[in-house]
Input
Amino acid sequence: MTPRRGKLIVLEGAEGVGKTTQIRRLGETLSARGVSYLGVREPGGTSIGNSIRTLLLAPGPELSPRTEALLFMASRAELVEHDIKPALARGLVVLADRFFLSTYAYQIAGRGLPDNEVTAANRFATGGLVPDLTILLRLSVSAALARTDSRGSRDRIEAADDEFHHRVAAAFDRFTDSAWQREHPESGPVIAVDAAGSPDDVATAVIGVLDQTWPETFRPVIGSHP
Output
């Protein structure tokens, strides 16, 4: 029997909102309950993608906005083709630390690239793959950058000026609007979660979204929550 297609669940948000922590926490919960999943991150995840990640994030020569966007999408194309689509075909849950909404926020809103051109290029990179759900972690710019700085020196994108980060945060806020989502069906459903609380509080909220969205899948696995 062919396995039922898995689910692509993306965690998104600006720098410092806690995506990586919450991906790890969610993966640990699923693993403890016997749910098969694959965790991936952008950029990176494949050998080519990891090389692109170094080009994008390590200090070095300045990249033009178009070069930056195309490098992100090249990494994404490799990840979709070699990791995400095969995992979904096997019925796995795929937990993605960023996907193409980051390109929309950082390269369209942040860098000022044309919406229609980036959207078309992204459609080519993903082969039309639509996330089943994107959970958007929201935090004020000042709090998010304070968390980023507490980790040490900023990478090349984190080191952009505050105006850039405010444009990115405003774009992520727009993505939760139902009208925006109707105009961008490639985004799939986007649900916001407040990331200002403790890691435990945020993890409970993230799991609660999955519990409510797919009770037949996640409620028996994850259990009830207060």
